[in-house]
Design a protein that fits this description.
This protein has 388 residues and is an alpha/beta fold. Helix content is 37%, strand content 16%. The chain folds into two domains: 36-153, Glycerate kinase, MOFRL-like N-terminal domain (Rossmann fold), CATH 3.40.50; 217-382, MOFRL domain (glycerate kinase, domain 1, 3-Layer(aba) Sandwich), CATH 3.40.1480. The protein is built from 13 helices and ten strands. The strands form two sheets. A six-stranded mixed β-sheet has the order 5-6-10-7-8-9, sandwiched between helices.
Length: 388
């Protein structure tokens, strides 16, 4: 049993389970719901996985598609449009840009024209930033728990929040005076009833809308657990609701690894523990990294000297922060290898420079763009004493 070989197999299985093209193909094969019998469809695909999702829909639906609009992150668009009737946009992410505004305008225009008798909307991570249609002169920003009103900012689902709710958030966080005047003015107009609220639950506009989640963090985590069991590990999916500061989550992960290593809790080795979700990083330094790299570096420090384990922190889209890494893969000797390379791992962590720390130890995880995006996975393998 090789922990590195097994971790690679587990990662491969998790990503394969949420392959966007396969997920769309399965969903359309299993039933079209409200699209059944419609022959003039508008396909709109938005997000980091928009290209494979959109192409899969075009292939599955064939001549039923009248037009398609595919909107994805710059650098992930194909060189050629899938069909002559497809509009392809490569836009800014995570910061919205002019290309995103143009893409949103094209979507709005297509929906207003109403040439087709059905719309298939395909959303994936990053859609909020890639499809900005802010109220002039505003600009907007970008999901744990699979909430439909949050995925891609929920463009086709009821919005239970109000202008008053948004104002209350600013007040609670003491941000009222720190946001632009245009934001304050817009929210105040909404609170006074001068602006129309977004459609709420029960609005008849949603009568003919059907939603289906075809890929999620939970599916990826379940596939990781299944593969680990196939490899002979006792495997547990602990949660897919991980949130919070990355370096604090790392302490919890380290505690679980130590408990399994020393006492066999929650189960004795060989053990695979899987978490899913999305952490955050409060940037105080000037270094380079991402939330998964920061988590991995913090865990490497917390687990220094611990034998016979391997921990992976993975951004499922293959891009963790503004780097070429998907995360980190660490063991009990990672911190020592960073020091041996001439760096202080604690100083680099304090400077939010997990990228260079992990690179020095050969602990960066590079997958390249995966074509999917279902938040993050954290996987810990704990082997028997004789296993590495």
């Amino acid at each position: 049993m090789s922990l590195h070989t097994d971790m690679t197999a587990i990662r491969t299985a998790a990503l394969a389970a949420v392959d966007p093209a396969a997920a769309v193909t399965r969903a359309l094969r299993d039933g079209l719901g409200p699209l059944q019998g419609r022959h003039r469809l508008l396909v709109i695909a938005v997000g980091k996985a928009a290209v494979p999702m959109g192409e899969a829909a075009l292939q599955a639906l064939g001549p039923a598609v009248e037009r398609a609009i595919i909107i994805t992150k710059r650098g992930q668009a194909p060189r050629r449009r899938p069909t002559s009737s497809t509009a392809l946009f490569a836009c800014g992410h995570p910061v919205p840009d002019e290309a995103g505004l143009q893409a949103a305008a094209r979507v709005e225009a297509a929906l207003r024209e109403g040439k087709e008798d059905g719309v298939l909307l395909l959303l994936s991570g990053g859609a909020s930033a890639l499809l900005p249609a802010p109220a002039p002169p505003l600009v907007l920003s970008d999901v744990v728990g699979d909430r439909l009103d949050v995925i891609g900012s929920g463009p086709a689902v009821p919005d239970p929040t109000t202008y008053a709710d948004a104002w209350a958030v600013l007040e609670a966080a003491d941000l009222v005076e720190r946001v632009p005047e245009a934001v304050r003015a817009h929210l105040q107009r909404g609170r006074r009833g001068e602006l129309t609220e977004t459609p709420k639950p029960g609005d008849p506009i949603f009568r003919r809308v059907e939603h289906r989640i075809v890929g999620s963090n939970r599916l990826a985590a379940q596939a990781a657990v299944a593969q680990a069991r196939n490899l002979g590990y006792r495997a547990l999916l602990l949660t897919t609701f991980v949130e919070g500061e990355a370096r604090e989550v790392a302490k919890v992960a380290a505690a679980l690894v130590k408990g399994a290593r020393k006492y066999g809790d929650p189960l004795p080795p060989p053990l695979c523990l899987v978490w899913g979700g999305e952490t955050t990083v409060t940037v105080r330094g000037k270094g380079l990294g991402g939330r998964n790299q920061e988590l991995a570096l913090a865990a490497a420090l917390a687990l220094e000297g611990c034998p016979h384990f391997l921990l992976m922190a993975l951004a499922t889209d293959g891009t963790d922060g503004p780097t070429d890494a998907a995360g980190g893969l660490i063991d009990g000797e990672t911190a020592a290898r960073i020091r041996a390379a001439g760096f202080d791992p604690r100083a680099l962590l304090a400077d939010n420079d997990a990228y260079h720390a992990l690179r020095a130890a050969g602990a960066l995880l590079r997958t390249g763009p995966t074509g999917t995006n279902v938040n993050d996975l954290l996987v810990a393998l704990v082997g028997r004493v004789e296993e590495r």
